[in-house]
Amino acid sequence: MKKLLIASAAAVLTAAAFAAPNPATATFDVKLTVVKACAVTAGAGSDISFGNQDANPTANLNATNSISVTCSKGTAYTIGLTPTNNDTTGAGLMSAQNVAPVTGNTDKVPYQLRKVSATGVEWGNTNTNGATVGNGVSGTGTGLAQSIPVYATVPSTNFTPDSYKDTVTVNVRY
Prior knowledge:
Blueprint: H1 2-18, E1 38-41, E2 61-71, E3 76-83, E4 91-96, E5 108-114, E6 137-140, E7 145-154, E8 164-165, E9 168-173
């Protein structure tokens, strides 16, 4: 019986030495992949309006407004502007709207989009491969909305009294 007791005690002590720790532990990771992204806001609030002007202005007309670009922090971007006529230099044509009593007006009012100022460098959309800025405007995202001014000029020429407009597409490459 003594032998059985000693053998049993040895078995219990050996089993206790190999028992799993209390509590059992394991690990896992918490992961997140942040991808670069950009959003652009334009629209009625970004329209460039030259207002009401004399049909025979004596000087070039200048106007400005801004667009808003929000890119993830550290994301490089380039903004290109393309008028309806797809001119990559930012030279557009505003079409007559034939607002009553005007009918049959086919005049086109030329304008030039510019960066920095109304007399600044042309702003277009020559960057098609994303590798260079071209004649666009570049920046780096902060994660917050960035207001980017856009300037436009109209040459002093003679146009039929009417309302004129064109649509510009804003392209943000990142």
